[in-house]
Design brief:
4 copies of one chain form a homotetramer. Chain A is of the alpha+beta class. Chain A has 2 domains: 165 residues, Beta-lactamase, CATH 3.40.710.10; 136 residues, Beta-lactamase, CATH 3.40.710. Chain A is built from 14 helices and 12 strands. The first copy, chain A, has a 5-stranded antiparallel sheet. In chain A, helix 3 packs across helix 5 and helix 5 packs across helix 9. The longest helix of chain A is centred in the N-terminal third of the chain and has 17 residues. Chains in contact: A-B, A-C, B-D, C-D. At the C-D interface, helix 12 and helix 13 of C face helix 12 and helix 13 of D. Chains A, B, C, D: This is Glutaminase. Chains A, B, C, D: It is an enzyme of class 3 (hydrolase). Chains A, B, C, D: Keywords: Acetylation, Hydrolase. Chains A, B, C, D: InterPro entries: Beta-lactam/transpept-like, Glutaminase. Chains A, B, C, D: It catalyses: L-glutamine + H2O = L-glutamate + NH4(+).
């Protein structure tokens, strides 16, 4: 067990929420679709679920937000369960080295996206999950899966349909990416259906508490409450991908500053994993220049400084 | 303390050396300079230095080899000591997303290399270390530093001058990189002198045992034997950079398969760090398609599978 | 008047057709849609319309073929007539320096295609021509325009609907390009409608004789039979664009070898203009490595060698 | 003979010089080396040498300036004379589609520069001309050649040594290009010697009158005064290359606006050829955003508008 006790964590979480609540520099809220643009920049939430089950929350930790690209972690997990390591024939595992919706790399690499956390890669993952079934079915399966991960028996986690529709109206770049990969044969279902699934996944809405709960399997070698979600090996590898590729073209800097596997979304959320120790979710809608939550990133940096949870530090034992 | 005891590690190390000694697929020895091309592909060495000081070696662990790009870890450490975080104004911290000697990225990013582990970045680090002093002085400082890190009182670690000369004769790409960055003002000393330093750093020769010893400060929060080499914060961050950028454009895959911060060289060596647990060096001269030691990578994968040392796994405690 | 008389031209045209008929190396017929793949590689046609109205034909000069990208010359002419030099705010005038369907350049240049003869540029031209009208109307206008240019009173020039449908079924790259430009606001009508127009333009079918007739206005300073199609200034500039950008990423080589403004299509046709002298059409379905008609290019090289019509040579007078 | 008589040309040339002398927008004088930065922006010269030998000059037509990249036309001519079409195995013939000193393209195309008019291509041409001889010899040969072309018996054309030295001091990008191509084996002599030749060629100084005289062979099918400089075929092809690639990444626009083969230099000079009609030189040191002489380009546009000399227009006969 970690040397930093339960009581200290509660205090650290409260301190961080207080500091972030008062921060002047809050970044810029994503404005490409109206439902995201309307979220007040004052919001900040944090939830830490410990390996022993203790939960610490502060700020707006129980308010639902659009998890956006964080959903790519859950869809990747589902796809690995469905088709296993075959997936890696259609998606790479390397950081992209450029902007998250870049189409350039697809041209030189024959329609194989660099990794499952850039848009192109997540669209391929959706194509894999969709297969020959109906979009509604794939979407329902995803919602059920995330609810199960989060222990959300009440079914409060769901799709924000306003967000899903808005994405669909303006998603020309994603349409371009999908058509481009289809030209290389790496999208197989009709493009509109694949994107329908993709936009719905991005529109998943939940709170920090629910998100941190949903991430427990990644801290626990693939298991939640005695039940195996995926193998320990795959959980470890998803963590590795989150470290290498989880923060767009700022992933190296996130590793440098925070040192935990994490995945961010343009809704301002970040899911982070300290293997064996904690599953952490933060949310603040203002983004930094790289498209990651400004205060979310700062909050995680503070948390790691005070707990020593970075995977790159010797553990206190 | 880790649950896997000293005796087990010794056995695991021996098993791995035996397996690697018998492997048929050994990769391709680097051939761009004669002194490297002549190294027999049969070589395999491994050394594991535990946090408690125990050392386990097997195979050709005491034979010196050319550490090549692994030296970039030590030169970065020296440069951070010399100029601190100012260094990051001249070098980035993101994976490059392309081949290790790529000049393309420098064009679009105004002469700022992506990270200190690609050639261009390491050349900037050499320029920083050189400053206004003589190349011989900068080289001597580096040799002293690495000997101190390794506890090499006998002074057996040194520069292989045959390698250094051969690099200089054929290093047109590095000459191109250096001149190109000079055009942007990011190299300040005369190009030939900076490259002289760079080629000598790459020509450092030492054994797996010495290399693993030299890496102890990265496992120990920057300290060796009660003495602080760098701050814990910087040690943590160097580990993060090794994870993100330590294996050229295969870094994502190395994180995925091995899950430890590491740095490879075309001489076939890899230095790996399990924070708080072990400093590990492997060496086998045959390279895989990405330019990393084929058997070295495989050996580390085996080691992690049997010990659970990946930073992405919950630690046994 | 040119020193090479009418009789000599007839002989030269016949000689060329004989040589091309016998050629062994005929290139590779485009196979990305079935209707093109079925065209026999033995076909070769040539038609030369002189400034004085004389017409010389040989080979399969009266057989209709799919003009494909050659239609981009006519749609550009129509669009310049419709919106004038405003067009250049949405399309550039420089050679692309890379493959004809490259999406890379669009990313770095904010959705502005390099020139109106690459696919992306021609799609913008279609968007301009479509405006708010119905696709069927824009297509009918184009057919009328080309018939008028060619003096095709019988209405034999038309759309090959089998080709148009086949393009639509597999045009994922063009769909990607159009969506991508729409993301930058450089496509304004619904993407499917713009592409419907584009694919129909590409599916225009006519013979060498008709194509050479249709090109007369470019040889004659914008005029045909006393009637002005466009201003002399614009005719001159369209010729310049054909010289710089008419042969995909082989345009420099075509200028080097042939030295006439020209535009090729993957159907194997090429329209060429010797200003003040002749309008020339050649057709042979086998393509060279750059996607231009292998024998068509060779035939034009021969024609220029024997007539001295290259714009880069001093004219005999 | 062209319908625009000698008297009219004289008047047109005088008009243009008057207009350019009064122009307010004169562009920006190149400042990367002091000797160029000191040239007064007021300068403007024009010289037109007709096919019949008549010479029309106006403005500062007899003042020497640094021809810079225009020398690439003469060095190409020499190299074709020396090694013939073998040259094209080491240099391409396509426009570069990007900035004139781009190193990116060299990476993807294995050290083969796109054309002989970008820096990398001209450096290869220098390597060809240098061969195993001494740099001084290659430079002397070039000076003799250009004097002969220009009929400069007095030997007033020469190298501006101040310019040559200044280039050498700051030519890090060219040093990078040369080393990079050497890494691919496409530079064979020692890099410093090749660049010594290159920088001296760029430092050739002559007047508009001399430059227009030197360009006569390109208007005359390779001949000057009954003497053959190169074959008609090669003269034609050099003209084609000037059209496709003569104005950096603005070549398409120059063809569109002027419609004559031409080559510009950062000293503000442009050599233009109207095949069979005239050899034209203009000079004004202020450059536009693309690095071509602002008033030089405008002067040529005016000249073509008033004479109809564009190769894309039907000739008046």
């Amino acid at each position: 067990m970690d040397a930093i006790g339960t009581i200290e964590i509660a205090g650290i979480v409260a301190d961080i929420a207080a500091e972030m609540g008062a921060a002047a520099e809050r970044g810029t809220v994503a404005s490409y679709i109206p439902p995201l643009a309307q979220v007040p920049p004052e919001k900040f939430g944090i939830a830490v679920v410990m390996a022993d089950g203790a939960v610490h929350v502060a700020g707006d930790a129980d308010e639902a937000f659009s998890i956006q690209s964080i959903s790519k972690v859950f869809s990747l997990t589902l796809a690995l369960g469905a088709v296993g390591d075959q997936l890696w024939q259609r998606v790479g595992r390397e950081p992209s080295g450029s902007a998250f919706n870049s189409i350039v790399q697809l041209e030189s690499e024959q329609g194989i996206p660099r990794n499952p956390f850039i848009n192109a890669g997540a669209i391929v993952v959706c194509d894999v999950l969709l297969g020959r079934s109906a979009p509604a079915e794939a979407i329902a399966q995803m919602v059920r899966f995330v609810r199960t991960l989060a222990g959300d028996e009440a079914g409060s986690i769901g799709i924000d349909e306003a967000v899903a529709s808005a994405e669909q109206d303006t998603g020309f770049r994603n349409m371009a990416l999908a058509n481009y990969m289809r030209a290389f044969g790496n999208i197989r279902a009709p493009v509109e259906r694949v994107l329908g699934v993709y936009f719905h996944f991005c529109a998943l809405a939940m709170s920090c508490r629910e998100l941190a709960m949903a991430g427990r399997y990644l801290m626990n070698g693939g298991r939640v409450g005695g039940h195996s979600v995926i193998t320990a090996n795959r959980a470890r590898r998803i963590n590795a991908l989150m470290m290498s590729c989880g923060h767009y073209d700022n992933s190296g800097d996130f590793a440098f500053r925070v040192g935990l596997p994490g995945k961010s979304g343009v809704g301002g959320g970040i899911l982070c994993v300290a293997p064996g120790i904690a599953s952490i979710a933060v949310w603040s809608p203002g983004l930094n220049a790289s498209g990651n939550s400004q205060l979310g990133t700062l909050a995680l940096e503070r948390l790691v400084q005070r707990t020593g949870w970075s995977v790159f530090e010797p553990r206190v034992s």
